[in-house]
Specification:
By secondary structure, this protein is α/β, with parallel strands linked by helices. It has twelve helices and twelve strands.
Length: 298
């Protein structure tokens, strides 16, 4: 199978490329720089030079492939509307290239699009006024192709996809702990946070592009961890006290009020349907063990 991937040199993309190559698939990947092209080549993929704004490049690459995995979500976060438009345009162009073929289009979103405060399943309606609602435009654009002969699939990643070289929410939390001298959690810290190891997520992407039915909404969630446990593990590893941060103080304690909102969010999500549908079984270490034993606290 020939798979075209965008975002193949980002945080999770290289693991997906490596997993696809490992089982014998041919991979081409969008590369916006010489560095990205070199990395893709090193992973065993063939680079396609361009960016998400090069719609002709995306169209041609998707047309030449047996399936597409869309990981990239780039731009200036100060201009969210432009980011949404860029994402939807890219998805639309690649989907149009696959119309009538039955080929897969796997588009990335996140479980934070779901309502907070309840265990959300793959069938739970997203919160269209929520903190991560911007990603729903991409979900909608993808699933619109189901009735047009495309095996369109939405992959919702846990907010923490952990593993070596992580530069997401947990490293930001660790940086805050180092800067402030305390490892904090909001309120009583009982809020729940989904996580998945990068290697397990990569296997799920492969299974999705190989065999997920059209219209599937998948959850790349291996576990759900209480935020107080995350903060406690960080504090123990850094030799810092672990403490509660009030909701009123959280906006200034963390990087931004938005990050404080996310760190205080109770956002549990399950993946039972995903596991049953594709036979996916996460096997890698959990988040707390990875914080203790990985490169997070180096």
């Amino acid at each position: 199978m020939h798979v075209f991937i965008t975002g193949g040199t980002g945080q999770t993309g290289p693991a997906i490329v490596a997993e696809l190559v490992r089982v014998g698939h041919q991979v081409t990947g969008l590369a916006r720089s010489d560095v990205a092209a070199t990395r893709l080549t090193g992973l065993g993929a063939t680079p396609v030079r361009g960016t998400l704004e090069d719609l002709d490049v995306l169209r041609q690459a998707a047309s030449a492939a047996d399936g597409v995995i869309h990981m990239a979500y780039g731009g200036d976060y100060a201009e969210p509307e432009a980011m949404i438009r860029r994402d939807v345009d890219a998805i639309t162009v690649m989907g149009e290239a696959l119309v009538g073929t039955g080929k897969p289009l796997v588009v990335t979103s996140g479980t934070l699009v779901l309502p907070f405060g309840q265990p959300a399943t793959e069938a739970t309606a997203p919160d269209r006024a929520g903190a991560a609602a911007a990603r729903l435009a991409g979900e909608d654009a993808c699933l619109a192709f189901v009735d047009r002969g495309v095996r369109a699939i939405v992959m919702r990643l846990a907010p923490t996809v952990h593993g070596p070289g992580d530069h997401g929410f947990v490293p930001m939390l660790i940086t805050t702990a180092r800067t402030t001298g305390v490892s904090g959690y909001v309120g009583d810290g009982s809020n729940r946070w989904p996580a998945v190891h990068r290697a397990d997520a990569a296997v799920l992407y492969r299974l999705a592009v190989e065999s997920a039915p059209p219209g599937s909404v998948l959850h790349a969630v291996a576990e759900t961890v209480a935020f107080s446990a995350i903060a406690g593990t960080i504090g123990e590893g850094l030799g810092l006290p672990t403490t509660s941060i009030s909701a009123e103080r959280a906006g200034t304690h963390y990087v931004s009020p938005f990050m404080a909102l996310l760190y205080g969010a109770d956002a549990p999500a399950t993946s039972t349907r995903t596991r049953e549908l594709l036979g996916w079984t996460p096997t890698r270490e959990g988040l707390l063990d990875d914080i203790r034993d990985g490169d997070y606290l180096d």
